[in-house]
Write a structure and sequence with these properties.
Length: 174
């Protein structure tokens, strides 16, 4: 292969590696190298005073509480937060040995937005269905239900991906 042919192959390879593929063409659409999170909104119906945490679970892998902001006058302290499955938060995005692993890594955090509204943020993933549960301070399940999710894109593009939102889903408390 001559120098010109090798140069063409290298350039074509670089173009294909730096863009997202489009169904109808060889050359892809350039995509920014960024990450995003998708938001699931959970609305609690009923008295939410006893609710300490809301979790969204996919195949037994549940969201963890989002880190709380540190006040500026307090030095940062790193304390590993235990995950309900026994893994630490730091290993949350790495798949462990499991017969159930589907190739989709689920990493999610839950944040109380209002007394009866929670946001579950998923790092780039958008699960088709979740089991949502409300827990009290002792970790007891107050309510639990399964929801199919319908995700709507709020940014980015179909070719390159981007943030999406689902919900609100409503969890009824006793």
């Amino acid at each position: 292969m001559g120098k010109t042919a090798r140069a063409v192959v290298v350039v074509l390879g670089l173009v294909l590696l730096t863009g997202c593929g489009t169904p109808g063409g060889l050359v892809g659409t350039p995509c920014p190298a960024i990450a995003w999170s998708n938001l699931l909104t959970v609305q609690l119906e009923g008295d939410a005073l006893a609710v300490e945490e809301v979790q969204a679970c996919v195949d037994g892998d549940c969201s963890v509480p989002a880190p709380r902001p540190v006040q500026q006058d307090t030095p940062p302290v790193e304390i590993p937060t235990p995950h309900p499955s026994g893994r630490s938060v730091e290993t949350e995005s790495a798949p462990g040995p499991s017969d159930k692993f589907t190739g989709q890594i689920i990493s999610s955090t839950a944040t109380r937005v209002e007394q009866n509204r929670w946001g579950i943020n998923y790092d780039i993933t958008a699960p088709e269905a979740v089991t949502v549960r409300a827990l009290d301070a002792a970790g007891n399940v107050l309510a639990e239900d399964e929801f199919a999710l319908d995700w709507v894109r709020t940014g980015g593009s179909e070719e390159c991906g981007g943030p999406m939102e689902a919900g609100p889903v409503t969890l009824t408390l006793p």
